[in-house]
Amino acid sequence: MARGKVQLRRIENASSRQVTFSKRRNGLLKKAYELSVLCDAEVALIIFSQKGRLYEFSSSNVQKLIQKYLEHRKEQITGPEAEERIQQLKHDVMICAQKIEVLEASQKKLLGQEVGSCSMEELQEIDNQLEISLNKIRSKKAQMFKDQIEKLQQKEKLLLQVNRTLSFRLQNEYKQMEIGSCSQSTHNSEVVTELFIGIPTTKN
Hints:
The chain has helices spanning 14-38, 62-77, 82-110, 120-192; strands spanning 44-48, 54-58.
């Protein structure tokens, strides 16, 4: 059976995200090592976790490889194609600025600002986007409530188990106390029945 296409997106659950990170990190480090051995390639791999922890692999000295990379990049930037590269970067910056301007205008409209010049179609599109956003927020909120309820239920089960254990211990201790009390009472009764009551007899 063919596997379905997995959509790449951020894993929301922290525990699942950490497990996936550990597995894929180890796989990536292994692949880097295999590439360096099988192909006699110089490989340097640097990974920072979400918490800033460093993981790295290098087929040789990592500092030397980084220096080699920087020198290579410097040659590319100062080479004959530098001017073309600069023009391309300027073009990319201009496109990014235009995209930012469009996004800012869209954000203002979603916040209800500057909607006086919007057409009916634009207003309908804004309404649809807001509805989608609200549905996502409600879904996330419901999931968080569900997770909290599950945690509380687990705590409740644990407390009930502890309560049952303590009740069982108290019952056993109470039974032991009753047994000890009955034993002491029986001993006192035997001592009393040994007393003789009557007219003393005289010996001839």
